Sequence to fold (206 residues):
Amino acid sequence: MAIISSYPIVTPQLPDKILGSNNVDAAGDPVIGNPTVQYTLTSIKEVVDQHYIQKLSSSNTTSIIPGVSDAGIVLLFPTAITASTSVTIDAVGKVVFIDSGDYIIQQVYYAQATSGTNIQLNFKTVQNGTTQVGPTTTTSFLSTSSTARHRVDITSYVKIATANTFYHFWLQNPGAGGAGSLQPQTIAADWGTIVPSAQIIITKLV
Fold:
């Protein structure tokens, strides 16, 4: 092979190709031997141009009361979204990832209690009805005001390897603490809106 500096300099076109090493396959698994391959500039541009696009947003504008129990409940987002080709949610909180790929899951909750005793609310994500994915998130607080809200933000970056994988999002108010819940908040005056007690937003890398 000649010295690189001996080759002419030209303006690249999208169908042109460059050499590279194939380290991972389309599923993100390592490629044995890292073979040398060709990439078109068009394909490289498609990878560089990827960005996250919102595929689903669903909210619950009613009170969510898990009860003081170690069992926990599945969180409901009553706005069912079934027309999406990437991810859907039904009225009982089942989120189905129709397409494999990279997703961001944003959960926003507003915790509330009227008792000053140890209030603890715990959150987890369960995959395919059996396996917890990611860590448990918790909030613990004291509250003597029915209008106080404690915002809980949970953001997860997940790679869905198998199409039709499904998630449920769980809430627990353990028996050792006082009674807590998730509550909406009405915004008065000209705004006339309701901040939901629970909201989920899912975006996909495309």
About this structure: Helices lie at 41-48. The chain has a mean pLDDT of 89.
